[in-house]
Amino acid sequence: MQMTQVLVSFEPDGRLAVKVDLDLTLLLGSPANYYALATSPASQQRAAVLALVPRVADSLRLYLGEVPLDLEFQDFVAAAAPETDYLDGSLSKPSTFRFFMSRLPSRSPLTLRIPLGAEIDYPVAYTVQIPALHVSVTRWLEDGAHTSAPFDWASRVPSAVGAAAGMVRPVVDGRFDPDRLPWYGQLAMYLRLGFHHIVPEGLDHILFVLGLFFLGITWRKLLSQTTVFTIAHATTLFLSTYGIFRLPSQYVEPAIALSITWIALENVLSPKLGPARLAVVFGFGLIHGLGFASSLSDVPFPKKDFVVALLGFNVGVDLGQLFVIALAFLAVGRFRHAPWFRARIAVPCSLTIAAIGLFWAIQRIVS
């Protein structure tokens, strides 16, 4: 029986692997052309296969929601069959294309779409599997069917980790187990998680960093403040994650909002960098570290390589802060030496940040 098979696998190492088995007779125009491709020298075959890859991908397109996935081609294996089978149109001679994607752009449901006129054989066996969870679901698309039922893969993955990492991670009995990852895998995953806690999730931390930025955008001032802030939040994050010191979030979250207001108003009232300012930044950094720990309460840290994971998270947070500062520099840095910079940019922006922080503080206290 002629048929096409599409296997989508959420691999334990975090990749999305896609395997397509299909007879290429329709795509190549004739059985003779198919046999010529299968038996051609390796270099010639590869060139022909690379020309076919876009047509195969367009004929069997995977979507996350309404966004088509841009898969990377990995390898090709021609069907192992004698010439007589290639020339017999009634026999199935599937060749294999393998694709992969390192990271999914969203957690929307996964669907397979086949456009009208696609040069493939029906029926199409479309299988999605999550090996770590022993999940495998197959849908058959008969002749005339062009869209599969959506597969809600995200509901089967731990949301806190999956949202930040974007992919499935090792799972045992339905629970994410970071100790099943190698240390470098943990470092990379928690680094991404730390960056994600700043950009795009950490709007309050973004405003605090911008408050540091608008004190004065010389590298000496920025480096002094961000270094002190990093040491402080890393300290309390470490202590809180180890269970040595914690505060309830109903106290921490309003305090973070008030720290934003304080730093922004200080930019307006006392625009100088001195020991007092650095002490204030350090103190507020301790509070922000407790906020990071509170937001990570539902995310498991490994037992075996705990320090590596915590280091990765802190580096990710710092990279997120540097990213915010870099964007701010690109936006207004070219005006930093202008005599009107403070009056027209630094002060109005600081007052806006202070107002937002005060609003959040009131909102978090009364809620």
List keywords for this structure.
6-stranded mixed β-sheet, 3-stranded antiparallel β-sheet, elongated
What does this structure look like?
This protein is an alpha+beta fold. The chain has two domains: 162 residues, no CATH class; 190 residues, no CATH class. Helices cover 51% and strands 15% of the residues. It is built from twelve helices and eleven strands. A six-stranded mixed beta sheet has the order 5-6-2-1-8-9, covered by helices on one side. Strands 4-3-7 form a three-stranded antiparallel beta sheet. A two-stranded antiparallel sheet has the order 10-11. Strand 10 and strand 11 form a beta hairpin. Helix 8 packs across helix 10 and helix 8 runs antiparallel to helix 11. The N and C termini lie far apart (64 Å). About 3% of the residues have low confidence.
Topology of this structure?
Blueprint: E1 4-10, E2 16-22, H1 25-28, H2 31-38, H3 42-59, E3 61-64, E4 67-68, E5 72-77, H4 83-87, E6 95-101, E7 110-113, E8 124-130, E9 135-141, H5 159-165, E10 171-172, E11 175-176, H6 183-198, H7 203-213, H8 219-241, H9 249-269, H10 275-295, H11 306-332, H12 341-366
Parallel strand pairs: 1-8
Antiparallel strand pairs: 1-2, 2-6, 3-4, 3-7, 5-6, 8-9, 10-11
Helix pairs in contact: 6-11, 7-9, 7-11, 8-10, 8-11, 9-10, 9-12
Number of strands: 11
Mean pLDDT: 84
Please state the overall shape, judged from the principal axes of the Cα atoms: elongated
Quaternary organization: single chain
Spatial gap, N to C terminus: 64 Å
Succession of helices and strands: EEHHHEEEHEEEEHEEHHHHHHH
Individual helix count = 12
- Major sheet details: 6 strands, mixed
Record the strand order, biggest sheet. Answer: 5-6-2-1-8-9
Helix content range of the residues, please? Answer: 40-55%
Q: How large is the share of residues in beta strands?
A: 5-15%
Number of domain units: 2
The low-confidence runs, each spanning 5 or more residues with pLDDT under 50, are: 158-169
By helix and strand content, what is the structural category?
Answer: alpha+beta
Radius of gyration, in angstroms, nearest whole number? 27 Å
